[in-house]
Design brief:
alpha+beta, two-stranded antiparallel ribbon
Length: 91
């Protein structure tokens, strides 16, 4: 008998909803303390997950969800670059 595989669930740091890992995008803090988008979801580092919407990114900025998840302060320039990358992905 074959059992069903579990789908990995992650919580969005913006809207705080649980969704499958494939429905979300990963924001990554690398070992060099850079904060980048991880489109593959497989890079090394500490990750936080967001839905594919700029609304969730704005909510995460407002409630400091990314800072809490990545355990570091996130400068405004990083938020601006993430917003630009999100806009290019949404189009």
């Amino acid at each position: 008998m074959k059992t069903k595989n579990k789908t990995p669930m992650r919580q969005c740091t913006g809207c705080r909803e649980m969704k499958s890992k494939k429905e979300m995008i990963r924001v990554l803090k690398t070992a060099e303390d850079e904060i980048v988008l991880d489109t593959t979801g497989k890079k090394n580092g500490r990750g936080a997950y967001l839905c594919f919407s700029t609304e969730c990114l704005e909510k995460a900025m407002k409630n400091h969800g990314l800072e809490r998840s990545l355990k570091t302060s996130v400068p405004q320039e990083v938020y601006d670059s993430l917003k630009k990358e999100f806009e290019s992905i949404e189009k």
